[in-house]
Structures are given as structure tokens and as C-alpha cells.
Specification:
heterodimer, A: mainly beta
Chain lengths: 89, 267
């Protein structure tokens, strides 16, 4: 798939990277239909680059359509349109 | 933590080796190094809890643009207003009119508060004015916006302040140099400088503290990454202002509780 990846200060590129898959029973894969760019992405673009490695995929404001769910995911199912909160919990 | 509405401090996804709170999508090793969503596909961790379903029938034919503010910026703005503790009939000064400041302004107006919106970019000021805010153009006040706001509030300052700038403030030349220098160090040296010495550009919280009336509340929603404190203990103690800040409490909770959200609670 194509993804926006960090390569260095003020250097992000669209890379071709492996498609993600469900690893754990409480995970899902979502096909992203729309995603925003945030002011805090600029922190990574400018001052927080020291905390990441080349090739890291950016972005924390996505939404899309569920493609696949693990067996513990019951409140959404493939085909559902979903918003993904930027916090992971 | 989630039962207390403190999802961002989640003990399951907390980044313990960095002493940070819950992981974040697409936000470096500081927050769990979870791959982000500017991609064609996203692996969603903790998907038994996180994803919020867009209601099918009500949202049929409504484009994504109506919902894409919900992963972060709209609930963040909602929290900024909640944390500001604006009293009934009270006033709030909002510093910086980027997306968070604009949304916070409209939410505060929606809740019936007086909004004084501050920026120095004409287009941003015009947008706020168009939506009914009183605006202050920082360029007109020679660096003394707090005096201008005191004049508009019978000399006392606004009841609340929302600081929506963060560490990117204009006018902090020392910190700007420090941020630039830190960006040139090796990763391990830079992390040490960033975390301990502090390279935040602190103009915005200083101005917020100078603006709020005694006993008022500052809601600081901007992002900070360094170490310094924004106020002397003396000023904090004598003015008895409240300072409410920190990572968004619960994007899931705010998303479904915010009445301006197109998504209603489903669980």
C-alpha cells in the first residue's frame, strides 16, 4: 500500500509499504477513505524527529471502512464506516 | 482509567519506558510508535474499544468531511471549552485561531459565552469575525494583548482563557534557536536536551496568565514537550487562577457526548 512516511526533518514521502494485517484477536484493519493533516504533525516534521526512525508511517486523524476484524471485535464489522480516535486505548 | 474518563492514561497501552500516557496513532516512540493513518490501510489496535461507528442511516450520503474532525480536533476543542470552566454569562479569550481556536470559539459561542478571539493572521481573524466573535488583532497592540482584553472586560481580564498555541508560539526567539539546535543533535543527545532542559516556546502561556482575571481559569490545549513551568509560584498563588491542561481526556467520550458531533452515543 501507499503510506506517508517520515524520512527526516522536513522530509516526508509517499512510500510503498506492506499492507497491514490483523495480528491479535482485538485488532482490525480499516481501509482509510479520508484522513486529515494536523498541526501536531508539524511537531514530527520539525522538532520531534529525534523520536522516530526513517520509514515510520504518520497520521492520527483517519476514518474509513472496516476491512477485517479479529474475533474479539464485536461492535464494528467489515463494511462499517468508522472514525478512529487518535488515542489508542 | 477508562471508567474514570481518563483514557489517555490507559494502563494497557501506556508507554511505560518513556513515562508517557496511552499510545497515540502515528506519533513516534514517545507514544508507542504505532503506525499512523496517512495510508491506504491502517491496523487498528484495541479495536474492541476504539473505533466509533458512523451511523449508517443518518449518515447515508453525507461525505467523510463531515466526520473527519472527530478522531482528534473537534473533541480536543470541546475539551478546551469544558476545561475553561467559563461561568454563565462569562467571557473567554481564545489565543490563536487555527483549527482548534476556531472550533473552540464556535463551541464557546454555541454554549452562550462571550468570545474574544486573538490572532495576528488577517484571514483567521476574519473567519472568527464572520462567525460572530469579537476579535483582537495582536498586531494592533504592540505586544500588549492582555491590556487590550482588560479594557474590554472592565479592567479585570477575561473569566477564562483558552491557550491553543502550544510550543510553536511566535516571538520566543531563544526557544526557537533551542528547537533548531536540538533538531541538529544526534537522537539520544537531542532527546536528553528536549526532555530535561525544555525547549518550549513559552510566550503563549505567559500571555494567557497575564490575561485571565484573578480566580479565573486557563485551559491550555496547546501541546508542550519540554520542561519549564510557565508561571512563578508567587503569581500563581496570589492570583489564584486555575490552570487546567494535559492530554485530551477521552476522545471517545467527547466524540459521543458533544452535542455538535454528528455522531450520537451508541454505547
Amino acid at each position: 500500500m501507499n503510506a506517508v512516511a517520515w524520512h527526516g526533518k522536513r522530509d516526508v514521502r509517499v512510500d510503498n509499504v506492506p499492507d497491514p494485517t490483523v495480528w491479535e484477536p482485538n485488532e482490525a484493519v480499516v481501509r482509510i477513505t479520508t484522513t486529515a493533516i494536523c498541526g501536531s504533525d508539524l511537531h514530527l516534521y520539525e522538532v520531534l524527529g529525534m523520536y522516530t526512525d526513517e520509514g515510520y508511517v504518520l497520521g492520527h486523524e483517519p476514518m474509513g471502512v472496516v476491512e477485517e476484524v479479529g474475533p474479539e471485535v464485536t461492535h464494528v464489522r467489515p463494511g462499517d464506516r468508522v472514525v478512529i480516535p487518535f488515542n489508542v486505548f | 482509567m477508562c471508567r474514570q474518563g481518563l483514557q489517555t492514561q490507559c494502563e494497557t497501552t501506556q508507554v511505560r519506558d518513556r513515562n508517557m500516557g496511552a499510545s497515540l496513532l502515528g506519533f513516534t516512540k514517545l507514544y508507542g510508535e504505532v503506525p499512523g493513518g496517512q495510508a491506504e490501510f491502517l491496523r487498528v489496535l484495541q479495536a474492541q474499544y476504539g473505533p466509533i461507528k458512523v451511523p449508517e442511516e443518518e449518515a447515508e450520503g453525507i461525505p467523510d468531511e463531515r466526520f473527519v474532525y472527530l478522531p482528534d480536533v473537534l473533541p480536543t476543542s470541546w475539551q478546551a471549552v469544558e476545561y475553561a470552566g467559563i461561568p454563565d454569562g462569562g467571557s473567554v479569550a481564545i489565543f490563536s485561531l487555527g483549527p482548534i481556536g476556531q472550533m473552540s470559539s464556535r463551541i464557546a459561542r454555541h454554549k452562550g459565552h462571550r468570545v474574544i478571539a486573538v490572532d495576528l493572521v488577517p484571514e483567521r481573524l476574519e473567519m472568527a469575525r464572520r462567525h460572530g466573535m469579537e476579535v483582537v488583532d495582536a498586531r494592533d497592540h504592540d505586544g500588549n494583548v492582555p491590556d487590550a482584553i482588560r479594557e474590554m472586560t472592565d479592567g479585570s481580564g477575561s473569566d477564562s482563557v483558552i491557550e491553543a498555541v502550544g510550543m510553536d508560539a511566535h516571538g520566543s526567539p531563544g526557544a526557537k534557536i533551542a528547537q533548531t539546535v536540538t533538531g541538529l543533535l544526534s537522537d539520544s543527545s537531542a532527546q536528553s536536551v528536549m526532555g530535561k532542559a525544555g525547549v518550549d516556546r513559552m510566550d503563549a502561556p505567559y500571555v494567557a496568565i497575564d490575561t485571565v482575571r484573578r480566580g479565573g481559569t486557563i485551559s491550555l490545549i496547546g501541546v508542550y514537550g519540554g520542561w519549564p513551568t510557565p508561571s512563578s509560584y508567587l503569581r500563581s498563588w496570589t492570583s489564584r487562577y486555575n490552570f487546567v491542561w494535559g492530554r485530551q481526556r477521552s476522545s471517545t467520550g467527547w466524540t459521543t457526548s458533544c452535542p455538535c458531533s454528528p455522531i450520537r452515543p451508541t454505547r
